[in-house]
Specification:
- It is a single chain.
- This protein has helices at about 10-35, 150-165, 245-250, 280-290, and strands at about 40, 50-55, 65-70, 75-85, 90-95, 100, 105-110, 125-135, 135-140, 145, 170, 175-180, 185-195, 200-210, 215-220, 225, 235-240, 255-265, 270-275.
- It is flat and about 70 Å long.
- The protein has 2 domains: about 40-150, Immunoglobulins (Immunoglobulin-like), CATH 2.60.40.10; about 160-290, Immunoglobulin-like (Sandwich).
- The chain is built from 4 helices and 19 strands.
- With about 300 residues, it is an alpha+beta fold.
- Strand 8 (about 125-135) and strand 9 form a beta hairpin.
- The longest helix has 24 residues, at about 10-35.
- Strands 1, 4, 5, 6, 8 and 9 form a 6-stranded mixed beta sheet that branches. Strands 11, 12, 13, 15 and 17 form a 5-stranded antiparallel beta sheet that branches. Strands 7-3-2-10 form a 4-stranded mixed beta sheet, with no helix packed on it.
């Protein structure tokens, strides 16, 4: 004897519930079957290391290099990354990404440093990397190895200059000129004005240094002590080629950065470089070529 289930009977409702439950189980199984897709939030592969340093050519444009060394046996694809430290006012994005690091690759990615935070005493550097490996996508934030005391040097230079310029502002002129002296040597000249800001305190300019490109001097007597009571001081930076060798010019990196040794309320032995504009830098290059007889 056959049986039928009426549409609104209890048996009919139980059948529909059983069917829906079976469908739900099938959906869960299908979703679980997709779990073989690349996993997210995996860790950085063993053998991948990160360090930071600054090249001499990075000094003037304020770059820091974030170097990633892939010692693992698989390709590491960097999709993005950033550098942060309490020594600086904000994080900085890594340039030249995305990038595929093959096994054995060691690549430096520049970041443009923001202003220094001069109230901080330790750097606490962090590098964040977003990446993909054979295992899937991942993101990690790690403490990099700091090479050559790079962060301490950058921070010290920045903050010594900030401390000095709170009391006395430094303003290079807008044009390099040159003329021959009595001996016939071609000498270059650049005005530099030191102007007290009115802030309390005293600063001292102890000396300036030569550079790899130029032998430099200022027409003043050292040590030069300045305060809010000082009058603006118009000085002239006199410079001649350090030596007339073509590689000195062709390989120049910081030869037009003017090194100052100073004393401020916060720095008993402060040091920083005055970074000149590109216009002044190329005027010095032209002068160097003329003074050394490389161009007419």
């Amino acid at each position: 004897m056959s049986h039928s289930i009426k549409a609104n009977s209890p048996n009919s409702r139980r059948a529909r519930i059983a069917m829906l439950s079976a469908l739900l189980v099938m959906c869960v199984a299908l979703v679980a079957g997709c779990s073989s897709a690349p996993k997210s939030h995996i860790g950085l592969p063993r053998g991948v290391t990160v360090s930071v340093f600054q090249n001499r050519s990075d000094y003037a444009p304020r770059y820091l290099e974030v170097q990633v060394h892939n010692r693992s046996k698989a390709t590491l694809t960097l999709s993005s990354g950033s550098f942060a430290s309490v020594y600086f006012t904000k994080a900085a994005a890594m340039h030249s990404v995305p990038y595929d690091l093959e096994p054995g690759d060691q690549v430096a990615f520049p970041v443009h440093l923001p202003a220094s935070a001069c109230d901080k005493s330790t750097p606490q550097p962090r590098v964040t990397l977003n990446f993909t490996t054979e295992a899937g996508k991942g993101s990690t934030t790690i403490t990099p190895t700091v090479l050559y005391h790079a962060l301490s040097q950058i921070h010290s230079h920045d903050c010594a200059m900030e401390s000095f310029e709170k009391v006395v502002a430094i303003a290079p002129g807008t044009k390099v000129t040159w003329a021959r002296d009595a001996s016939g040597a071609l000498i270059s000249y650049l005005p530099i004005t030191l102007t007290p800001t009115g802030a309390a305190g005293t600063v001292t300019l102890n000396s300036i240094d030569d550079t790899t490109l130029l032998l430099m001097s200022l027409n003043t007597t050292f040590p030069l002590v300045l305060s809010a009571k000082s009058a603006p001081l118009d000085l002239t930076l006199r410079a001649v080629p350090s030596r007339c060798e073509t590689h000195v010019l062709s390989e120049d990196k910081i030869g037009t950065v003017v090194p100052f040794h100073v004393v401020t309320s916060q720095y008993a032995n402060g040091y920083f470089g005055i970074v000149l504009s590109n216009t002044l830098k190329f005027e010095y290059y032209h002068y160097f070529s003329l003074a050394c007889g490389y161009s007419g």
